[in-house]
């Protein structure tokens, strides 16, 4: 795996001030941040610097979006998809660059798919379920917190039995 800082203006027209991208042809990788880490806004996709990845090699960005789903997007902006699993995103990239294969770029920042989803069609339905579950979880956490405070207040004012 090769780590490349994306601070050069040649890489992105609107490059973030600090970021790092890992470029990997195929193989095992690590370093994607867990789903509960905060989302970091990134610059729009722009053509890659030819000194980083040759223009003739199909290249895919693979990473997570703000909801934690996996995203695979062609660097040229022709195709992309949203997936439940990293392996599915990698398979999508390989399948759409056959027979030669592709380079895969794993940005550390989260990014959103700016194309029509050609990936898992169920992700759209899961999004609404995730939002619903998140709202319910927040409501339940608030209710439990209020109940805990009420029990604490009540136990402070209750006389102890002998």
Can you offer a commentary on this structure?
28% of the residues lie in helices and 18% in strands. The protein is built from two helices and six strands. It has helices at 86-95, 123-157; strands spanning 2-5, 20-24, 59-64, 70-74, 80-83, 103-107. A six-stranded mixed β-sheet has the order 1-2-6-3-4-5, covered by helices on one side.
Q: What is the strand arrangement across the widest sheet?
A: 1-2-6-3-4-5
Mean pLDDT score: 74
Give the low-confidence spans.
1-42
Please tally the β strands and state the result.
Answer: 6
Order of helices and strands: EEEEEHEH
| Main sheet properties | 6 strands, mixed
Identify the notable features of this structure and list them briefly.
about 160 residues, alpha+beta, 6-stranded mixed sheet, about 30% helix, elongated
Summary, kept brief:
By secondary structure, the chain is of the alpha+beta class.
Question: What are the SSEs and their pairings?
Answer:
Layout: E1 2-5, E2 20-24, E3 59-64, E4 70-74, E5 80-83, H1 86-95, E6 103-107, H2 123-157
Parallel strand pairs: 3-6
Antiparallel strand pairs: 1-2, 2-6, 3-4, 4-5
